[in-house]
Amino acid sequence: MQSKNVSFGTYIAEVRKAKTMSQKEVAAKLDISPQYLNDIEHDKRSPSSPQLIDLLATTLEISADYLSYLAGRIPEEVKERKLDPVTFEKAMVAFRKATEKK
Length: 102
Description:
Blueprint: H1 8-18, H2 23-30, H3 34-41, H4 50-60, H5 64-70, H6 76-80, H7 85-100
Helix pairs in contact: 2-3
């Protein structure tokens, strides 16, 4: 389920299907339309807010951090730390080194 080139939408769709949940069921839990969820799953739209990413993660029982990564966003708690540029750059370098090993 977790291939190297997976998109946000593809990952959501794969997890949802693995849990045998319908788009309609998930959309109802997220308080969004099934069409909006379909658009997300087909990478036609991005999640509109960090809160939607968190709610998707909770609903599908997956990592909000990984979803934020797939969505191209930095997790909110990292943003809230208000890191200076040097500290942020060091963290990104460490992240890159850690992920290159995999």
